[in-house]
Design goal:
The protein is mainly alpha-helical. The chain contains three helices and two strands; from the N terminus they run βαααβ.
Amino acid sequence: MAASQAPKKAGVFDIRLIIALLIGGYGLVLTIMGIGFTTEEELAKAADVNINLWAGIGMLVFAGLFVLWAKLRPIVVPPSTEGEGGE
């Protein structure tokens, strides 16, 4: 009966997807802050670089790469061996 079990993918429990969700969420917030809520005074403090925007875009790219990695190389969970003459 256990021999008929096929290996399963980790799916939503893959740590890479959880990291991508967290980094992507922060990246989305920073991107929105950089686009809509950055003042000229803040830009002057940062040498005319919109740090929130660039950091947010970088985080979104990073999250996208993690999702791509998780989809292209999924973690395969081996089938359970419980009850097969083990200890």
